[in-house]
Please model this.
Amino acid sequence: MGFFSVFLCLILCSFENGFALAARDTKPHLLPHTTHTVEVNSLLPATTCSPSTKGHNSNKAPSVLKVVHKHGPCSKFHKSSKTSTTTSDEKYHAQILKQDQARVNSIHSRLHHNNNNNRRKDPLTQSAATTLPAKSGIVIGSPNYIVTVGLGTPAKQLSLVFDTGSDLTWTQCQPCAGSCYKQTEPIFDPSLSSSYKNIPCTTAACTQLPSSGLKQSCSASTCLYIAGYNDNSFSKGVFGSEKLTLTPTDVFEGFLFGCGLDNEGLFNGSAGLLGLGRSSISLVEQTANKYNRFFSYCLPSTSSSTGHLTFGDGGSPNGVKFTKLITSSQSESAASLYGLGLSGINVGGSQLSIAPSVFSSSGTIIDSGTVITRLPATAYAALRGAFQEAMKNYTLTKGDPLLDTCYNFSGLNTVSYPKIAFVFGDGLTVDLDATGILFPISPSQVCLAFAGNKDDSDVGVIGNVQQQRLEVVYDVAGGKVGFAPGGCD
Ligand SMILES: *[C@@H]1O[C@H](CO)[C@@H](O)[C@H](O)[C@H]1NC(C)=O
Ligand SMILES: *[C@@H]1O[C@H](CO)[C@@H](O)[C@H](O)[C@H]1NC(C)=O
Ligand SMILES: *[C@@H]1O[C@H](CO)[C@@H](O)[C@H](O)[C@H]1NC(C)=O
Model:
């Protein structure tokens, strides 16, 4: 009999728990308009490319480049024969997350480099043959989003990673050797171009490289650069000028770039990088006469879709709302990052209670090359708590060294999770796209795509997962950055 009543209680008590849960479900943060319900499959990349049509017929914005994921079916580097398996996907994603932390460490050290107790050692000061200022400026992350541009005469088509966190545009000018990975992409050979020039050492363009966070030296009278990175990755080479062809109608003579002779580490055979930072050497500054420091992009949500990178103001798309661009006063190279006044986070329609000083003391940048958004530890803890509360329904599973809130969605057709929005100090609220919240490692490990900084004083970073499918508009001359939904549609 005792046994039976315990059994009965097990049933009734769990019913009671069920009712308690159901009652909690009526809380505002679980109402449908505060929740995304999506098919699990839609979170994962498909095997065929479904390109976006945006921009292709646009005559208002003259310079629209197609953005693709380097490793997806929309990229020419995609090997269709190679079937992905769960373990290869998991390894690939683990690698992306590891590189992402290296990039964020590098951003943090860049923002701290004025500080004499620099916590992170700069590898370049020991390995470089030349003695250069111990200042690390450039950060390179996962080579996720690429655009194709033409360089030289005749124009060589190169697929470059575009990066708002870097200033110098560089290409690979010599076959990969030494400790770099196998060459996978065409190189740019300056001897085959009639418009290539070395930059002399005595020019202002050369002597100003350190103000863009680069190291500069001379060989004979030729200007050399090093774009360093804290994880032993770097690009070293000759500082040169070339004809840059963004689109057939948008051609720039004498564009300053790095002709990389030695590119090592995470670059992994990539053709190079398009630097969209704010210092004088960036593409944005070098094309300011034509585009007035205005560009926008949409990052596709999966590797089987495409987005765009647009230069110039073709008329802001519908519904773009702006927040003020903040310039860091910490140092010159930090000033080339895009700072925003993040002041709060909404989960499921209600704002988390986080003291505004948590965000204002760390500051926040938006970066196209960081994958996972980093928040001050205090803010991340609040976000994780609210998210896990709303996701009680699902099975938490093992995390990754970077991501600690992961769910096993295997066997489910659809899942529901709370909407998340960023709130900025000047009143703008940006709702993230449904694809901008989770990072799928595999169907059985889909993670909340946010992480906490170790140190609350380290700068927060709005990463590219959170920017997915949004139109992100940089009006640098106007001192503002804008967002609108559906930028890749
Ligand atoms: C570099 O690329 C090769 C093949 O393209 C790949 O097998 C390898 O995992 C990549 N390494 C990194 C660190 O991304
Ligand atoms: C995920 O859930 C499925 C179905 O419930 C189960 O078969 C699988 O073992 C789980 N995987 C992990 C890693 O927990
Ligand atoms: C919890 O899961 C059930 C079915 O598994 C679903 O009907 C319900 O909407 C889910 N609740 C939430 C809050 O996601």
User: Anything to note?
Assistant: The chain has nine helices and 30 strands. The two ends are 64 Å apart (CA to CA). The pocket of 2-acetamido-2-deoxy-beta-D-glucopyranose (ligand 1) is lined by residues 95, 181, 184, 268 (CB under 6 Å). Residues 63-311 form a domain with the Cathepsin D, subunit A; domain 1 fold (CATH 2.40.70.10).
